[in-house]
Amino acid sequence: MNFVIVGYGRVGSRTARVLREEGHDVTVVDNSDKKVDRARDEGFEAVLGDGGTESVLQEAGIERADAVGGLTGDPNINFAACMLGKEYDCRTVMRISEDYRQEIYERYADDVDEIIYPERLGAAGAKTALLGGDFNAIGDLTDQLRLTTVTVPDDAPVVGEHVANIDLGADGRVYAHGREREPMTIPLPGTVVEPGDQLALLTERNALERVRSKLLG
Predict the structure, then answer these.
(1) Domains of the chain, with CATH numbers?
(2) Does the keyword Isomerase apply (predicted)?
(3) 6, 25, 98, 119: which could form a disulfide with 51 (CB 3.0–4.6 Å)?
């Protein structure tokens, strides 16, 4: 598959590397000379310019791309890149900050295929979203981190809590939520945990049991 990644910062660079490691073709777009040079030094095709501009995305090969990720720190650039991606029938994934108000989140969510919070989701989730998968999976992320899902029982301590307020400390994070047979997605700020819900977790490998205990009792 072919991907255009707009933004080669912390999230974009890691996402690009993971996609390439899995055999996909990735082109990077960034408006920083240093980041474009770094991407090229690391073996990527890279285009210097504003990722929210059609001519720049055309230079990056958006016509043949399967998905576009707007992963810069600027939501305006990310949104513009995604809207242009839609015009070329690409899957679109947009990065926003966690402190956005719910109505702004919902406005973006209506227009793009997936929204990611890098503070929770990180590049692994961005990669999964770009590939069109859901988050209902168990797997290893690295030698130190683990992705897993849990089902919330009736008497779990987290029942009734807002997903965004669940604090696992340094042991891990809740990065996606699902209800019954619905696909797992990034929860809205007002999402409350109910019995039977599924939570997707990113944890330190040796902390998994502690995290399960905090969440499920």
Answers:
(1) 2-116 (3.40.50.720), 123-216 (3.30.70.1450)
(2) no
(3) 6
